[in-house]
């Protein structure tokens, strides 16, 4: 509950693409910024319905191998994976229909949740394209400066993907969705025992970040079993 309270909090958005926050208490590259949250996260996790949260899936839904990635948009190791080995995984296994790939967000901080809300703003159709843009520009937007500067950069990325200002405002003001996302993450984290990012669950077995040849060997062994 303590971490959820830290991530969720009061939030306000100024329309037409101009964003501001009710609290700017942090300093440095990753400010302790307030985020959307229902009643400052006073509800318990058991009271939050996460059934409406969409799983973001690529590949063959009927594949014998399922690979789940747990990653944070503010995690540099996750950015390295997505800007490198993920492209190999996609070409070798996702695009060829050999695996079902699921991406699940991890929230260490408020900017990571903001990025997730922007990524999900266009639904599954735009999610992975926005995810690519967020990871390519991670060092720029997460170090943009004040909370308002970070939000402006995230809004710019959303607009690059074709989202308009009104749509982005509506997504970022959705306090109920924000809390649902955090509780959904907590449920997934606890169920799979995730402690670091990126982490991968391959047919139910949890693995930490690894070199691509090692991941390939694990997937090939599952395909061949």
Automatic annotation (TrEMBL):
**Which keywords does the record carry?**
Disulfide bond, Oxidoreductase, Redox-active center, Signal
Keyword Signal: yes or no? yes
Q: Which GO terms describe its molecular function?
A: oxidoreductase activity
Please give the Pfam families that the UniProt record associates with this protein: Thioredoxin_4 (PF13462)
Q: Zinc-finger among the record's keywords? A: no
Specify the Thioredoxin domain's residue ranges: 24-224
Q: What does this protein do?
A: May be required for disulfide bond formation in some proteins.
What the record says about family reads:
Belongs to the thioredoxin family. DsbA subfamily.
Question: What's the protein here called?
Answer: DsbA family protein
Upper classification of the organism: Bacteria, Pseudomonadati, Pseudomonadota, Alphaproteobacteria, Rhodobacterales
């Amino acid at each position: 509950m303590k971490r959820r309270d830290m991530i969720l909090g009061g939030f306000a958005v100024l329309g037409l693409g101009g964003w501001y926050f009710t609290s700017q208490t942090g300093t440095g590259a990753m400010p302790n910024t307030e985020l959307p949250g229902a009643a400052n996260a006073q509800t318990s996790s058991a009271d939050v319905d996460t059934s409406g949260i969409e799983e973001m899936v690529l590949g063959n839904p009927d594949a014998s191998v399922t690979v789940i990635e747990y990653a944070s948009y503010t995690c540099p190791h996750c950015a390295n994976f997505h800007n490198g080995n993920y492209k190999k995984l996609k070409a070798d296994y996702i695009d060829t229909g050999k695996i079902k790939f699921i991406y699940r967000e991890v929230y260490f901080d408020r900017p990571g949740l903001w990025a997730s809300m922007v990524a999900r703003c266009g639904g599954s159709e735009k999610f992975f394209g926005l995810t690519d843009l967020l990871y390519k520009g991670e060092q720029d937007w997460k170090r943009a400066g004040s909370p308002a500067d970070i939000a402006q950069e995230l809004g710019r990325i959303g607009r690059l993907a074709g989202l308009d200002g009104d749509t982005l405002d509506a997504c970022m003001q959705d306090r109920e969705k924000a809390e649902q996302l955090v509780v959904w993450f907590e449920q997934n984290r606890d169920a799979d025992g995730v402690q670091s990012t990126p982490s991968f669950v391959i047919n139910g077995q949890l693995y930490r970040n690894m070199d691509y040849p090692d991941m390939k060997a694990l997937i090939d062994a599952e395909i061949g079993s």
